[in-house]
Specification:
The protein is mostly helical and 222 residues long. The protein has helices at 2-8, 22-42, 44-57, 93-96, 117-124, 132-138, 151-154, 185-197, 201-216, and strands at 64-70, 76-82, 142-144, 170-172.
Length: 222
Amino acid sequence: METASAHRQGQLEQINLEGLTPAYIFTKRCFDFTVSLVGLVLLSGVFLIISLVIKLDDPRGKVFYSQTRLGKDGQSFQMWKFRSMVRDADKMVDKLLQKNEVEGAMFKIKDDPRITRVGRFIRKYSLDELPQLYNVLRGDMSLVGPRPPLPREVAKYTNYDRQRLAVIPGVTGLWQVSGRNELDFSEMVALDIRYINHACLSQDIKILFKTVLVVIHPAGAY
């Protein structure tokens, strides 16, 4: 949290891409591909159970939900999740923006009225994020990295904030294991830049292990 505190005090850490060597990028991609492929196979039963529960809760709704996100260098892609909200939830955003509980270019509400009963459970334990293993397999995302933002969020970014788009976005990252929604946007950006500036595979593995602990004992997830 040292970097986040420095951000609040105006001491902004600038991005340094020297750690993103070809060897690291290649190794990271191989690691992502292997783990996501194995994960999709091993978790196929979990995918089936979650799909059935979502359908039982709302037979007319879709099981999966895709949303346009921006990845490395602002390139758009479709990010996949298990549907955790009511149908047409995106159309309700404008009416809820004034209730946003996260400072900065993000939108989060702790008691979001759009979340379904099943959705509240799978979001608490991050089970709704599992389909993003497919995004990792495709190369749209990495297992670890900054979370991919929405286009409307990036439209509000400063040049400093845009530095977090310098790498492939991740399913999890320092933000998720350092407080998640309890942190504001500036703290998230500071953590993302810290992650990029210390890029290495051992850091990725450490964050993945911490993510498992956060999933088992969720805090700040909604």
